[in-house]
Amino acid sequence: MNILKKVLVVLGMLFVSGVPVFAQNHTVSTEFSVTVPQYMNIKPVTSPVLTANITNRTGNLHMPLSTRFRVVTNASQTKTLYLQANTTTEGGYETAMFERGGQVYVAFANMSKIPTSSALANCKYGSAPKDSPGVVAYPITYISGAQHKYIGSKSKYEVYVNNGTTDITVNIGSNVLRDTFAGNDPRGFYQAVLSLTEADI
């Protein structure tokens, strides 16, 4: 009997020690999140100052003017940008884009002898060439790369861009608006500034 008790005790001990002990796995996680804001970047691809020479007799340019803007955005919906032109007169920095007869033009002002505000206004409204000294105008012949619409009440284009990268090319034709060029336009450097903005300013 003693031997049997001893065997049972030993077996009992072996049985107890043979029970597997399962470790409990605890998983703890921390959630990280970031917010990516709406992003818009607009930059000129070509030089911001583009020049062309005017022929003496006609007022036409030797070659058209062209520029390109690159727009990068992560917007999920179509964004509206604004293409506008400005030039300098004695009255300050003024809108230089206008429409006449269904054609949109950009007015260029002489930077050596700054024209008056009325000269710019006369250029836009079709007065005689003698009434707009120091201001000449050229047509916007095409805008490519994005849908667009000229808004006459704002004297600018709305340009519609989608998510990703968009290259927008603007071409100004070489044929002068006839009633804006005359012998009383002083020689020198004429300038207009074309800009593409996110804000409707």
How much helix, percentage-wise, in residues? 10-25%
Q: Under CATH, the topology is which?
A: Immunoglobulin-like
Top CATH class: Mainly Beta
Q: Output mean pLDDT.
A: 86
Protein architecture, described:
- By secondary structure, the chain is mostly beta strands.
- It has a single domain, classed as Immunoglobulin-like (Sandwich), CATH 2.60.40.
- 12% of the residues lie in helices and 39% in strands.
- The chain has helices spanning 2-17, 117-125, and strands spanning 40-44, 65-73, 79-89, 92-95, 97-100, 103-110, 135-144, 147-151, 156-161, 164-172, 190-191, 193-197.
- The strands form two sheets. Strands 1, 2, 5, 6, 7, 10 and 11 form a seven-stranded antiparallel sheet that branches. Strands 3, 4, 8, 9 and 12 form a five-stranded antiparallel sheet that branches.
- Strand 5 and strand 6 form a beta hairpin.
- The N and C termini lie far apart (107 Å).
Quick tags:
elongated; five-stranded antiparallel sheet; 201 residues; mainly beta; disordered N terminus
Q: Would you kindly provide a brief summary of this structure?
A:
With 201 residues, the protein is mostly beta strands.
Sequence-ordered SSE layout with sheet pairings:
Blueprint: H1 2-17, E1 40-44, E2 65-73, E3 79-89, E4 92-95, E5 97-100, E6 103-110, H2 117-125, E7 135-144, E8 147-151, E9 156-161, E10 164-172, E11 190-191, E12 193-197
Antiparallel strand pairs: 1-2, 2-10, 3-4, 3-9, 3-12, 5-6, 6-7, 6-11, 7-10, 8-9
